[in-house]
């Protein structure tokens, strides 16, 4: 029991500061994936959302089978089961390409390259979303710590977490999994 407590505290310390993680560090969130499923069900809507928070009519709701069919295994694990990709391994962690980042689940525009910055943590980091109403938050108390989870407000996809250690003007760091995003390059 004492060893379990020590391991839990060690793991919690590693997760609170992702800037200390290296590419060979395993993603600890994967251990908690099994209890985090939150399937969303109903009719899908494919149109891209361009303004404000989603109304109930705008929500993209699919069965678990539909999500599995449209997402890669990695995208499904991260967006639907609340997993995490390993630091410094995602497609966009150090991308400097100009454009917008959309949700892989529903195509809603979430972040701009204008607010992306290098936080050193190994995941794409943004100091603000394009519209705060497009990114929902929930308390995440898995893994023995309390964090603020960020989700696409339109389809409920797990994006990552937001922390209070970002740059001005917001002081926030939206730490996002690349598998939750698709970069639409600026022409």
Key terms:
187 residues; alpha+beta; Metal Binding Protein, Guanine Nucleotide Exchange Factor, Chain A; 6-stranded antiparallel β-sheet; 16% helix; globular; disordered N terminus
CATH superfamily: Peptide methionine sulfoxide reductase
Level-1 CATH class name: Mainly Beta
Helix fraction by DSSP (H/I, runs of at least 4): 10-25%
Cα-based radius of gyration, to the nearest Å: 16 Å
Strand order of the largest sheet: 3-4-8-7-6-5
Average pLDDT over all residues: 79
Gross morphology is globular
The sequence of SSEs as H and E is: HHHEEEEEEEEE
Alpha plus pi helix count:
3
Described by strand count, sense and barrel closure, the largest sheet is:
6 strands, antiparallel
What share of residues are in beta strands?
Answer: 15-25%
Poorly predicted parts: 1-51
Structural category = alpha+beta
Please indicate the count of domains. Answer: 1
Please provide the count of β strands.
9
At CATH level 3, the topology is: Metal Binding Protein, Guanine Nucleotide Exchange Factor, Chain A
CATH architecture: Beta Complex
Distance between the termini: 57 Å
What this model shows, in words?
This protein is an alpha+beta fold. It has a single domain (2-185), classed as Metal Binding Protein, Guanine Nucleotide Exchange Factor, Chain A (Beta Complex). It has helices at residues 2-16, 64-70, 73-79; strands at 99-103, 109-112, 116-117, 125-126, 135-140, 147-152, 158-163, 173-176, 181-185. The protein has a six-stranded antiparallel beta sheet, with no helix packed on it. Strands 2-1-9 form a three-stranded antiparallel beta sheet, with no helix packed on it.
